[in-house]
Amino acid sequence: MTDPKTGEVTEGIRILWGSVLSATLSFLITAAVVYFLMVLPMAKYLARRPPCRRRRRACRRRWR
Fold this sequence. Notes:
2 helices
């Protein structure tokens, strides 16, 4: 890249901070939606379910 004021060649990579911020926010929003709409309800459902230890078939039929 060349500096438009001096015409000097500079090295490095320009970081587009707007793109970085946008990608970060998109990731955080998506992660929050997945957590609150999928992970949290499933954890609550599994916590209410009684544990099945010996009779798996009977337990599966009862909770379907």
